[in-house]
Write a structure and sequence with these properties.
By secondary structure, the chain is an alpha/beta fold. The chain has two domains: 122 residues, Response regulator (Rossmann fold, 3-Layer(aba) Sandwich); 93 residues, Winged helix-like DNA-binding domain superfamily/Winged helix DNA-binding domain (Arc Repressor Mutant, subunit A, Orthogonal Bundle). Strands 2-1-3-4-5 form a five-stranded parallel sheet, sandwiched between helices. It has a four-stranded antiparallel sheet with strand order 6-7-8-9, with helices on one face. Strands 10-12-11 form a three-stranded antiparallel sheet. Strand 8 and strand 9 form a beta hairpin. Helix 6 packs across helix 7.
Length: 222
């Protein structure tokens, strides 16, 4: 059972695919455009898979894919009536995990969904290793220079987010949206506070968290 986000401006498709996925045992959130999808995604960190129609109003599938891929490695499937090979290649190059053309057979569609979810399942068991820093995702354990590091749950989520997206500079607002959730209404300076606390606990690995004055933070290992 997985939480899946599906965005499509065609109500008929939203109802049909929601039914397909629920009959396969999944929970489904639906959106009518990319902007709605992005809000749901940032508000629901347990989403295991995102399915996006390409041609949507307000924010299309391409733009939504770009926004999601900038903050998360979650599997993304593009579902579209555009059958041109160039569109399929573009989708895969821009970070989509699969590209499914409408119309489709329900069994084939569900098989591709299951294939994408297996990627999420494997990610849940992964270990992140960067320089002298080692994180076991399954046990939520952190080691720096082979020594165990005690950090808070929020600090853990923040560190994992940065490590999974190395070399990308994130603004405080983007970090708040992805780690704290879209509905968070507190001061952006809480990011600075958590970064400072993390650095004080990580020993030599503290240097991997880079500050870009006036912009935000990134994770980089030379």
């Amino acid at each position: 059972m997985a939480l899946i986000l599906y965005a499509d401006d065609e109500e008929q498709y939203r109802k049909m695919i929601k039914l397909f996925l629920e009959s396969d045992g999944h929970h489904v959130l639906t959106a009518a455009n990319g902007q709605e999808a992005l809000k749901l995604f940032t508000n629901n960190p347990d989403i295991c898979l995102v399915i996006l129609d390409v041609m949507m109003p307000v924010m299309d599938g391409w733009a939504t894919l770009k926004e999601i891929r900038a903050i998360s490695p979650v599997p993304v499937l593009l579902l579209t009536a555009l059958g041109d090979v160039t569109h399929e290649v573009r989708g895969l190059r821009e970070g989509a995990d699969d590209y499914i053309q409408k119309p489709f057979r329900s069994k084939v569609f569900l098989a591709r969904v299951q294939a994408a979810l297996r990627k999420t399942s494997s990610n849940e068991q992964e270990e992140l290793v960067q320089g002298t820093l080692h994180i076991d995702i399954a046990t939520r354990s952190v080691f720096s220079d082979l020594l165990s590091v005690e950090i808070t749950p929020r600090e853990f989520d923040l560190l994992v987010f940065l490590m999974r997206n190395p070399n990308i500079v994130f603004s405080r607002e983007r970090i708040l949206d992805r780690v704290w959730g879209f509905s968070y209404e507190g001061d952006q300076r809480t990011v600075d506070t958590h970064i400072k606390s993390l650095r004080s606990k990580l020993g030599t690995a503290a240097q991997y968290i880079r500050t870009y004055r006036g912009i935000g933070y990134s994770f980089k290992v030379d």
